[in-house]
Amino acid sequence: MKAEGSVTPIDLSGTVVTAKIDYITIATPGKVALPLLDGKPKWAVSQHYRALTDHDASPADVEALIATFDNPEILELEVAVDFVPKHRLNEADDKATLNKLYDSLLNQLYPWAGEMMRDDVMGMFNPTTKSLRPLDLQRPDLRTQVVWGLRGFPAQVKLYIKGRDQNRELVWNEQLVRAEVRLSGEGLRAHGLNELSDLQGFEFRKRLSPYFRLLRGSRRRRLNQASEDSLTRILRGLKEKADANTWSEIGAPGFRQLRGVAPIVMKRDQRANERIGDALKRLERRYAEKAIFRRDAHTQEVADLESARVSPRWDPSPMTY
Question: How many Cβ atoms sit within 10 Å of the Cβ of residue 173?
Answer without folding.
Answer: 16
